[in-house]
């Protein structure tokens, strides 16, 4: 099949159904709604670093001063609430896109998210007791009573008092479900609330007040019936799960959906598919980063949050359940220096390019590449539909994804720590933030990998461009 035939087939048969899916109301709400969580993820990452400075002496001093607990509080109230931001943002955007007052829908989504979970936590004594227990610690983190000592003292109390002290603490919100573990539930709830809310509004299920009533008051009455129906239905779902299965919706979704989906996204196959598809879409002129980001963010962001929680607890390792493929794996490796990891082309233009076209585009791309932007190459060189550079464009992110997965899997570098470096953070600097000095070194190596893969293909393409330019120059000279 010739190049033109392949392009036509992809554009006519492959891309339309994919774009139709990506542009559905649900996926659009997911993509745009998740944006509202980004400031809290990035700001929370700063607090995460401050509460876990990777210099033992400094970390101990911060912990002893009590400031570690303060930074932890800030981290919990920002990054630790990403499921809350997702539930509100997705419900808000869905209804906004349908042309209705969106804030009541976003708040309804939040209310449903809380209503569908047990408002209780396990008693801290359970985790503190026994040989494997954490014991009791002071504000500085020092153990003042071992787990065995706690158990021995509890055993001296009457059984009724023991049962009371070890019972779950009710009337509280379990922050575990407000972070990464509640993300898939938050996405589902946000989408369903947005859909149900707009469906009822379109059907006329609303209270209409006289025109004389102020708009801000009238809007709340307009939202009352859809919100009331959604909350009443959610209450019945909560009651059904509680009385029949002794569980809640968030636990059910986490066990049946989130755990297997996160496992799939965290596999080597998942990493390679994501890396390939970003380049695939871009090659045909469609924003691959945007499409794959919309599809994968609901799974990769929870992976990031899980790693952040482990890092904060000092237990970041694959043995303790850390993920290899996270949102930072996607942003800061698969898309490093831009989709296709095109830093190798930049290096080529600086040291070996002969054609005016390559040199000119290289100068334009140099600064954007530092901040992981490569549209000048994608459309100016171009990389889109360019058979000369197709192989390195597809191959480089796949090789980087494979090798990065391997160095983490075999323990050469630690898992990504959950810190969310903005995608525009320059290479090596972002590596240090998301995984320490070893990850920074590995990121530098990936830049060399890109250069090694792109160089021979770029050299051949540059020669073609140079020959064309020379031919044009000779033609103009002959005409003169």
Automatic annotation (TrEMBL):
Check the record and name the InterPro entries matching this protein. PTS_EIIC, PTS_EIIC_3, PTS_IIC_cello, PTS_Sugar-EIIC/EIIB
Keyword Zinc-finger carried by entry: no
- The UniProt transmembrane annotation reads 40-62, 74-95, 107-126, 175-197, 217-241, 261-284, 333-353, 388-412, 432-455
Which intervals hold domain PTS EIIC type-3?
10-457
Q: Which UniProt keywords apply?
A: Cell membrane, Membrane, Sugar transport, Transmembrane, Transmembrane helix, Transport
One Pfam family, please name it. Answer: PTS_EIIC
Q: Where in the cell is it found?
A: Cell membrane
The membrane topology of this protein is: Multi-pass membrane protein
Q: Does the record's keyword annotation contain Cell wall biogenesis/degradation?
A: no
Q: What does this protein do?
A: The phosphoenolpyruvate-dependent sugar phosphotransferase system (PTS), a major carbohydrate active -transport system, catalyzes the phosphorylation of incoming sugar substrates concomitant with their translocation across the cell membrane.
Matching NCBIfam families: lacE
Protein's name in the database? Permease IIC component
Lineage, highest ranks first: Bacteria, Bacillati, Bacillota, Bacilli, Lactobacillales
